[in-house]
Amino acid sequence: MGVNAPCHLAILVAAGILTGCAKTPAPVAETPPPDPTTESWYPVTVAEITALHRDALRLYRSGRPEEASGLILKGQPLLNRVLQVPKPTLAAVEAASDMDDLYGRMLLANKHPVWARQMFQKNAARWKNWQPQTAETAQRLKVAQDAIAECDRQP
């Protein structure tokens, strides 16, 4: 090492210290992903599900359960789409609940209490975990729990 080696070493140490003290760039704010429930397709799809449920219920009550079942099956992809968003709307959860309740009742009437129970359990889980709880969501939970109890009474 030459005579200037300590000087070079001091310059390198000082540069390292100054580099470590430099301001770090401000983090880039991430843009949150858009809320799918505010997109135009979402309420339209919920309205479609609601209409399918209304028609299926009418068909079921008029003694045409096969046609009602077809409408319920037609609504499943729509239900999956509106429920797969991070925070579905109350209207979407109600529409799904109504379809599952009708299908569960149809299964129960056809002597399939185990399958019916699965439909009612989905509803019970939905309403037990829904926030904020309201008188209506509490009533929907009670209806689902009563339906589960009805399944459990079946032979």
Task: Provide the fold topology.
Elements (H helix, E strand, L loop, with lengths): L4 H17 L19 H21 L3 H19 L6 H20 L3 H17 L5 H18 L3
Helix pairs in contact: 2-3, 2-4, 3-4, 4-5, 5-6
In summary, what is this structure?
Helices cover 72% and strands 0% of the residues.
Describe what this molecule looks like in 3D.
By secondary structure, the protein is mainly α. The protein has one domain (36-152). 72% of the residues lie in helices and 0% in strands. It has helices at residues 5-21, 41-61, 65-83, 90-109, 113-129, 135-152. Helix 2 runs parallel beside helix 4. The termini are far apart. 26% of the residues are buried.
List its salient traits.
0% strand; 6 helices; elongated; 155 residues; mainly alpha
